[in-house]
Amino acid sequence: MESSQRKLLIAGGGSSGLGTALAAARRGWKVVIFEAQDIGGGTSTTSTKLIHGGIRYLESAIKTLRLSDWHLVREALRERKWMIESHPHLCAKLPIILPVANKADKIYYGIGLTLYDYLSYPYRLAPKEWIDMKAFYEYFPIAYRKFIGGWLYWDGQFEDRLYAVHLALYLRQRFGVDIRTYHRVMDIEVVKDEVRVCVETAGGERYVESGDFLINATGPWGDFLRKRLRPHTAPRLRISRGSHLVLKGLPPLKAGFLIPRTVDNRVLFILPWKEGTWLLGTTDEEAEAPEWNAPVPAKEESYLRAYLARYFEQSGEVVARFAGFRPLVFSREQTTSRIARNHVIEVWEAERTIHLMGGKWTTFRSMGEDTVRTLYTRLLRRPVVEGEPVTQIVPDLSDLEALKHIFPQPIVEGEPFTEGEVRFWRRLGWAHTPADIVEGRWQLHLINENRSLRLKSALQARWSELT
Ligand SMILES: Cc1cc2nc3c(=O)[nH]c(=O)nc-3n(C[C@H](O)[C@H](O)[C@H](O)COP(=O)(O)OP(=O)(O)OC[C@H]3O[C@@H](n4cnc5c(N)ncnc54)[C@H](O)[C@@H]3O)c2cc1C
């Protein structure tokens, strides 16, 4: 049987599931994605929105000389370039400044960032540069006067959830990938050469879908499906919650600000975000189990605000907060902040299933490639087919533009969001609730919670008419 006739089932429509779909679809596979919520509605909407190699992993690589850390940074730096080029409207280069208080730090961080530049060759975005004190305070006029300058280096920034939605649309338009939102995989069985999943819809109906293989790409929820297949298997994932705050009322940032080490050995970012706000994150707290739309605990909010107050004279007003769960591949000896963020692929041959765990947004494409290559070599036992190259994932949005033109009325007076957009996103069949539009397409809950609530209730009132 040729690969074009084979069917791949994927549980999870976050970055891992979409990356795997891309890798399989470009090789001619028929792909069905089941997503329990909306596209990107899990961890993939709660990232710090950085497209990065990972300064923190670089430091770990220098200290431990562990090959996997070097590999992780290098791979992510290559993928960083691809992502920025794959969707230039939603991804952009971002300067980030590491503040320096003394000469020793200037040398230490200078060496680290030289390595970061070196590792990114030939995918470098721009070289790092030293910013003297005057320039530093031009960038950050409300920072406390305790720095001699800073190192400016480059990474990328993107709109994670919207990128996921655009990628999903591209996969549908270009390869006919079938993406079913609010379809949750509840059970799996293998019958001869088929894997069968039992899927539950939002309305509570259940149906069975069959395919050749299954990919479990359910992120921090991954152990649920592992247990459905092998009830006595040990869990592989540990969960850590990362919280962010969005602040307004501060001078707009022209560059990100990196706090390279907190007292509890974390990295914090303060990034320019939409509508002149500041995005601050993240914490790293062990958690029991992942939740959809998790609240930010007051303790973590205070922690983040306290850190801001160490560096800046003003603290602004918190207008939005969001938290997500890092799925970290389990290891008993380590605390969560030390576990490598490399992805792990676990092959269950008899169950015709591959579990894809861990990783990061930036490397979603290579994670998908690894998974599909493993599928060829370990499950199909065939040479890997190369497939069609994909350099851009920008979908055709001409229908969106047309509908915006036909229905330009704002949903709420004074807001830029129109009826035409609601109709477009609903007609695709993926958005089932006002939150899917307001949060999943406009990302308003990540910009201003009150405005997001207002828009959601206005949409709720007119939901049946805006189709
Ligand atoms: C706080 C935080 C900050 C981060 N910042 C960055 C960053 O700046 N840059 C970066 O590159 N990476 C970052 N990451 C990492 C990155 O966000 C994640 O690695 C990535 O989003 C994980 O994607 P995923 O598809 O594996 O998981 P998810 O996005 O969680 O997707 C899994 C999906 O599976 C669905 N699902 C669950 N159970 C089922 C089921 N039974 N059936 C069907 N569907 C199911 C869920 O609804 C979910 O949508 C960050 C992570 C966190 C937590």
Write the layout of secondary structure elements.
Layout: E1 7-11, H1 15-25, E2 30-35, E3 50-51, H2 55-64, H3 67-86, E4 91-100, H4 103-120, E5 129-132, H5 133-139, E6 149-158, H6 160-175, E7 178-181, E8 183-191, E9 194-201, E10 206-211, E11 213-216, H7 222-229, E12 237-248, E13 256-259, E14 268-272, E15 278-281, E16 285-287, H8 298-311, E17 317-329, E18 344-348, E19 353-357, H9 364-380, H10 398-406, H11 419-427, H12 434-438, H13 449-461
Parallel strand pairs: 1-2, 1-11, 2-7, 4-13, 11-19
Antiparallel strand pairs: 3-6, 4-6, 5-6, 8-9, 9-10, 12-15, 12-16, 12-17, 13-14, 14-15, 18-19
This protein binds flavin-adenine dinucleotide.
Structural commentary:
This protein is an alpha+beta fold. It folds into 3 domains: 3-44 and 161-235 and 337-380, FAD/NAD(P)-binding domain (3-Layer(bba) Sandwich), CATH 3.50.50; 59-158 and 238-332, 2-Layer Sandwich (D-Amino Acid Oxidase, Chain A, domain 2), CATH 3.30.9.10; 398-461, no CATH class. Helix content is 34%, strand content 25%. It contains 13 helices and 19 strands. It has helices at residues 15-25, 55-64, 67-86, 103-120, 133-139, 160-175, 222-229, 298-311, 364-380, 398-406, 419-427, 434-438, 449-461; strands at residues 7-11, 30-35, 50-51, 91-100, 129-132, 149-158, 178-181, 183-191, 194-201, 206-211, 213-216, 237-248, 256-259, 268-272, 278-281, 285-287, 317-329, 344-348, 353-357. Strands 3, 4, 5, 6, 12, 13, 14, 15, 16 and 17 form a 10-stranded mixed beta sheet that branches. Strands 7-2-1-11-19-18 form a 6-stranded mixed beta sheet, sandwiched between helices. The chain has a 3-stranded antiparallel beta sheet with strand order 8-9-10. Helix 2 (55-64) packs across helix 4 (103-120). The longest helix has 20 residues, at 67-86. The chain is globular, with a radius of gyration of 22 Å. The two termini are 41 Å apart. Residues 332-341 have low confidence and may be disordered. Flavin-adenine dinucleotide binds next to helix 1, strand 2, strand 8, helix 7 and strand 17.
